Amino acid sequence: MTASHGTAPSPFKQPRAVWAVAFACVVSFMGIGLVDPILPALAGSLHATPSQVSLLFTSYLVVTAVAMLAVGWVSSRIGAKRTLIAGLVLIVIFAGLAGTSNSIGGIVGFRAGWGLGNALFIATSLAVIVASASGGFAGAIILYETALGLGIAVGPLLGGELGSISWRGPFFGVAVLMFIALVATIAFVPNLPKPEHKTSLAAPLKALRHRGLLTMGIMALLYNWGFFTMLGYAPYPMELNAHKLGLVFTGWGLLVAAFSVFFAPRLQARFGTAKVLYVNLFCLGIVMAVIAIGVNTPAAVIVAVIVSGAFIGINNTLTTQAVMLVSPVERPVASSAYGFVRFIGGGLAPFVAGKLADATNLSVPFYLGGVAFILAIVVLASGHKLVDAAEKGAVEGEPVCPSLQRVGATPAPGYQPVIVAVGAIENADEIVDAAALMARDAGRPLEVVHIRETAVVEELAIDAEDAEQARATVLSHLDRLFTLGIAATGQVLTSVGDHAAAGRVLAQHANDIDARAIAVGRSPRGQAAQFADGSFTTAVLHNAARTVVMVEPGKAPHRLSA
C-alpha cells in the first residue's frame, strides 16, 4: 500500500516453514490438471467408458464440496497446522492407493478420500503461509499466488510426462511429492494459535440464507458446471496421447494463471465486477459451442480449450470477488459456503455429462455446458443490483469497497493535515514517525491512515488483520505521537483486493479535507503485483490534487510525480 518506486523486499526470502507449505500448494494446485492428460489412457487401460472415468472428478469434487462445510469447524478446534497435516496425510494415502488400483471403481473411491484431504489442505494453507511468512502480508500473498499459478501451469505438463510412462504415474507422483511436503510441514511449520472463537458447523449453510451469497453461489455452480464439463470431456475428441494432452493443458493452465493473477483485477477495476463477468461468461458459452460444433475436429477442440484458459482465469478471480462483495457474513464462512456450492456444481457436471454422452453423442454435454454459462449470466443479472450496491459500499456486513473509519477524536474542520498512508508492515512506525517530522516542519497536524488489507485468491479470502487489530495499531501510533508532542488523528482504510481503488478513495479524502500533502512509504508488493491489482501510490498520484511524497526512515522525503 505504499510507493512503487525503488526495489521492493523479495517475497521469496522466507522461512523454511513457508517454503514447505508453498511447495505443498504447488502440488495441490496441480491436482485437477494432473489427471486430464491420462483420462483417455485410463479409459483404455481399465476398459472403462468416458462416463465412468468422469466419476474421478465427481467423487473428488463432491467430497471436497461437502468437506468445505466442516473445515472451519475442524481448524478452529484443532488448529491450522494439525488441519493442514491431516489434509496432507489423506492426500498421500489416497493418491498412492489410486495408483495401485486395478479398477475404475477403486480409483473413484480413492479420489473421494483425496478430495477430503484437499479440502482440509486448501482451507488452511493460505492462513499458515500468512502466519509464518516474513516480510509482511503482501509477500505471503505473492508467494501463494505464485504457487497457484505454478501448480495450474505445471500440473498438466507433469501429468502428461508421467502419464506417457503409465497412467499410474501421476497418482504416484502426487503421493511422493505430497509426502515430501508432509515431512517438511511437520518439521518446519511451528504450532500456530487456534482462533479465538470456534466456528459453528452450521455456519456455512446458515450463510446461504442470505440472498446475495446464495445468488452468487448458484452463479458459481453454473459456471463450474460448464468448466468441469469441458475439463472432464474435452480430452477425448482431441485424440492425443498423454504427452501431447499435457502440452495442450499446460498452455491452457498458463493462460488461467496469467489472466487470473494479472488481468482480472485490472479489468474489474476498470469496468466493474458484474460487467466483466457478463462478457466473460458469454465468451465461455461461445467457446463451449465451438467445441460442441467441432467435436469431430480435434484441432478446433484444442484451440478452443487453450483459449478458454483466459476466460476461466478471469472468472475464477472475479466470481470469488462477487461472492465477497455481497456476503454479509465473516469471510472465512462465506468462503466455505461458496466453496460448497461451487464444487457441487463441478462434481455433478461430469457425471451428468457422461450419462448424456452415453445416451446421445459427445457434443451434447458441451452444448449443455454452454447453456450453463448462459444461465449463469441470468442468475448474475438477478443479483446485479446487490453487486453494484456492494461496490458502492451500500451493504451491511464487512466492508468490501474501500472505506475510511475514524479512530480516536474527530478533528476540527479546516485542519489541513499531512496524511501518511501505511499498512501492516514491519517498518510502519518508522514511516509514520518520518511523516510526523515532515508535518511538524510544515506546522500541520498529522493524520495516520492505516491500510487494512484483505486478499482474495481463488475461493479464499484472508485478512492481514481484523478490525480491532487495525484500530489498535492506529491508537498505538497516536499514543506514540502524543508522547512526541505531535498533534495527530487516525483513520483505518479498508481495502479488499483492489489496491488502486483504495488509493483513489484516499486521494478523494485528501482533496475533500484540503490536506497539505500525502506521505507514503516504499511498497512491499513489487512491480508485478502492482501491475496485477493496481498500484496504490499511482492511483493516489493520478487522483489527488496534492503533493505526494515518499518517506523512508533515515532519508529526506522526496516528491513523487505521476
From TrEMBL:
GO terms for molecular function: transmembrane transporter activity. Keywords: Membrane, Transmembrane, Transmembrane helix. One of its GO terms (cellular component) is plasma membrane. The chain crosses the membrane at residues 17-35, 55-74, 86-108, 114-134, 141-159, 171-192, 213-233, 245-264, 276-295, 301-326, 333-352, 364-383. It holds the Pfam family MFS_1. It is a multi-pass membrane protein. Its main location: membrane. CDD domains: MFS_YfmO_like, USP-like. It is found in: Cell membrane. InterPro entries: MFS, MFS_dom, MFS_trans_sf, Tet-R_TetA/multi-R_MdtG-like, UspA, YfmO-like. Residues 17-387 form the Major facilitator superfamily (MFS) profile domain. PANTHER family: MULTIDRUG EFFLUX PROTEIN YFMO (PTHR43683). This is Putative MFS family arabinose efflux permease. It comes from Kribbella kalugense.
